[in-house]
Automatic annotation (TrEMBL):
Protein name: 3-dehydroquinate synthase
Residue span(s) of domain 3-dehydroquinate synthase C-terminal: 187-331
NCBIfam families for the chain: aroB
Gene expressing this chain: aroB
Organism: Halomonas nitroreducens
Subcellular location per the Swiss-Prot or TrEMBL entry: Cytoplasm
Amino acid sequence: MTQPDDALSTLRVALGERSYPIHIGPGLLGDPQWLTPHLAGRQVMVVTNETVAPLYLSRLRQGLGDDLDVRELVLPDGEATKTLASVERIWDALLEAGFNRRCTLVALGGGVIGDMVGFAAACYQRGVAFVQVPTTLLSQVDSSVGGKTGVNHPRGKNMIGAFWQPRAVLIDTDTLATLPPRELSAGLAEVIKYGLIRDPGFLGWLETHMAALRGLEAAALTRAIERSCSLKAEIVAEDETEQGVRALLNLGHTFGHAIEAHQGYGRWLHGEAVGTGMLMAAELSQRLGWLGDADVARVRAILAAAALPLEAPADMASRDFLAVMRLDKKNLDDRLRLILLRRLGEACIHDQTPPECLAALLEGFPRR
Ligand SMILES: NC(=O)c1ccc[n+]([C@@H]2O[C@H](COP(=O)([O-])OP(=O)(O)OC[C@H]3O[C@@H](n4cnc5c(N)ncnc54)[C@H](O)[C@@H]3O)[C@@H](O)[C@H]2O)c1
Ligand SMILES: O=C(O)C(=O)C[C@@H](O)[C@H](O)[C@H](O)COP(=O)(O)O
Ligand SMILES: [Zn+2]
């Protein structure tokens, strides 16, 4: 087997004794050196959706040798399909193919496919191998790394799931060429998140390179993906199952998940809801005296530069936010646990927000 090309970079997610690679670069799909070393055996189920299949399925198949038993499952597209019923379709296909515990599932697509395939792998015959091949910016910088898998419930995002780590993450940056601009912006929300929670230098870099990122300039995108994956890998290595620091990756998500669930899954993209949620978190941090006017203005400006929404849905009252936020998975002992900003580049877990302060934020935050 040839050595990986120098143009590609590899990061690792270290989990105690175990670790897995994140390969990042152009041209990974279709090159057998990336996928085949991570297969558990001969049986391979590639799961994708009806949008991604015509774009990338045949290229991925080229990266799988002829000596394998490869099956394909093409699911419908959309956040609304991130359900247990879709995961059952994966299990049905695996059983129909007669696949055993040495099979490997390959998730080819965005975060919806990745989360569902990971969950299917976690449960099939009590756990089989899976590989993430993310094709959206959001899935390349966030969802494919770290092993959070699962599906939505009408009452809350990702309410049913498991921690189950992939064997490898293969990020082919060429796939971003076909991504619609709205999806690119959604991915940028999670990229901005890393700067806000952990890396003020990266936040500054993003401010100056936003036009290049939105213009799909390869060098800028690769740098943003590498830095995001590296920060996520570091946090997951510290706290795989979200007992502490990993919760910081949820900046903007308590508000954002409430928007997604209230509006009906898919109406707001996950990244859009998280972007608005991060602005809400920043404004709440300002009300608590941690951020100044200039800090909040910077958060608003970078979200605007990424073409993300800055207002909450018009039909969402404060009580609608609170109803979903009360079910958030981070909450303990009936207390809301929010991720807030001590300053730009430093997040904290906060469960002491005075109710009147949160109420004022929710009442005063603009709607559209
Ligand atoms: N597990 C985690 O840690 C984690 C982290 C962040 C988000 N998520 C989850 O990820 C999901 C959002 O992921 P997403 O933003 O990738 O959404 P998505 O999976 O719905 O993909 C967005 C859209 O882009 C299409 N698409 C995918 N790749 C494409 C390509 N290369 N060219 C053209 N179109 C392409 C998809 O078919 C879809 O229509 C949410 O369910 C969210 O909860 C999970
Ligand atoms: O990896 C994590 O941890 C995250 O929180 C990343 C988030 O961007 C992602 O949306 C995640 O799926 C949210 O998880 P949840 O536990 O809040 O459902
Ligand atoms: Zn997210």
